[in-house]
Design a protein that fits this description.
By secondary structure, this protein is an alpha/beta fold. The chain contains 16 helices and 14 strands.
Length: 392
């Protein structure tokens, strides 16, 4: 009997980078799900866009191989084809290769409007079911904003729907935005979390230098929308109440000019000794979640927010901006504190949680239970498998 063939299309795919993530990542675990079910899997991707990060990961893990990435290779039982060159050239080569194949199922993780339209047209012509996922944090704003680019994006999504594409949303909020565009073939399957990741021995010595009497943790790229500046501006008031408060800011892009701006701000406010910037390894970040008193995330909004699930699974209480996605994941505030996105609101919320350990414990218990019941990896994989099977 001929083996079922499936194809995943994503911006990048590299097991060394996945090994640094705390959360399971769908572009990694979904092809592995296919393989475990006996399917033959091909992944079409581009080369990892941050080669310096990949080189650092390979060096830290003493792998001695896997860098630079190869154009064609087999990893974890999957065939990966990477396409080089500038965006237009690499995308055209990817589309040309795909036009010569005939998988039974395709899952496209958005590459951009031109590429997404190209793959939807090819799948329509070949009569191949196409599953589409969009991971960009900017998507919710794009679907409701005015202007030429948001309008073009909405038109492209409607066209893909007309071509027969099946949309997967990560939250009910995202699914609702799709339906407002007239997209009817949409299901909600959230991101997953392996709660067992945090069932490890606590090793305080790994992160001792970053911890204070009360430790705030933030994880995310150094960019304005993630809200690190709000937390830094909270620090003078927090230090008056608890002089040994520590703020730990974890991010991959330490070379970012915005990180330099944040460091200058720390010096101006006189809090530089209490704010730590680091690119933590996976093991370090797990220990930071386990030893921090509060996960603070003043984001402008997320498409989902893996960091919510990480903190919730670790038992680290969450305070974040009151936005629809956070509201959905944190159960309307029962599994985390939701506040306005301002320095004053975060100061007030953090101080309330600082002086109320029982509230922190209650939020953490509710949050962990929510992860186990709704987002646990095995449950999410079952939902994906049922969905894929319904399409073939």
């Amino acid at each position: 009997m001929r083996r079922m063939q499936a194809c995943q299309i994503s911006l990048w795919w590299n097991p060394h980078i996945f090994s640094e993530f705390v959360s399971p990542y769908p572009i990694h675990y979904l092809p592995l799900l296919w393989r475990r079910k006996g399917w033959k899997v091909e992944i079409l991707a581009k080369f990892y866009p941050i080669p310096e990060e990949l080189r650092e990961v390979v060096k830290r893990r003493k792998l001695g191989w896997g860098y630079p990435e190869k154009g064609v290779e087999c990893q974890e039982g999957l065939t990966i084809r990477r396409f080089s060159g500038e965006r237009v050239l690499s995308s055209l080569c990817m589309l040309r290769h795909f036009s010569r194949t005939s998988p039974r199922l395709v899952h496209l993780h958005s590459l951009g409007i031109p590429e997404d339209l190209g793959f939807s047209l090819l799948c329509k012509r070949k009569r191949i079911p196409l599953v589409f996922s969009h991971h960009a944090a900017s998507l919710p704003d794009m679907l409701v904003s005015r202007g030429m680019l948001p309008s073009l994006h909405r038109t492209a999504l409607r066209f893909m729907h007309a071509m027969g594409t099946f949309f997967v949303a990560f939250t009910d909020f995202q699914a609702g935005l799709y339906r407002r565009l007239g997209i009817k073939r949409v299901v909600t399957i959230p991101h997953a979390m392996d709660v067992g990741i945090f069932r490890v021995r606590k090793r305080r010595e790994m992160v001792e230098g970053y911890l204070g009497e009360f430790t705030l943790l933030h994880a995310g790229f150094f960019e304005p929308r993630k809200g690190q500046e709000i937390l830094i501006r909270c620090m003078p008031s927090l230090l008056k109440e608890c002089p040994r408060t520590s703020l730990v800011l974890v991010g991959k892009n330490l070379e970012s000019p915005y990180r330099s701006y944040l460091q200058d701000l720390c010096r101006k406010l006189g809090v530089e000794k209490h704010v730590h910037f680091l690119r933590a390894s996976r093991e370090e970040l797990i220990q930071l979640y386990l030893h921090s008193d509060l996960f603070a995330f003043p984001t402008t909004g997320e498409i989902f927010g893996h960091v919510y699930l990480e903190a919730m699974a670790a038992g680290c209480p969450v305070i974040t901006t009151d936005k629809p996605v956070a509201r959905e994941i944190l159960q309307e505030g029962r599994a985390g504190m939701l506040v306005e996105r301002s320095v004053e609101a975060f100061e007030k919320g953090i101080l309330e949680l600082m002086y109320d350990p029982e509230l922190r414990r209650r939020l953490a218990r509710t949050a962990r239970k929510a992860v186990e019941e709704k987002y646990e990896l095995t449950r999410i994989l079952e939902r994906w498998w049922e969905f894929y099977r319904s399409l073939i």
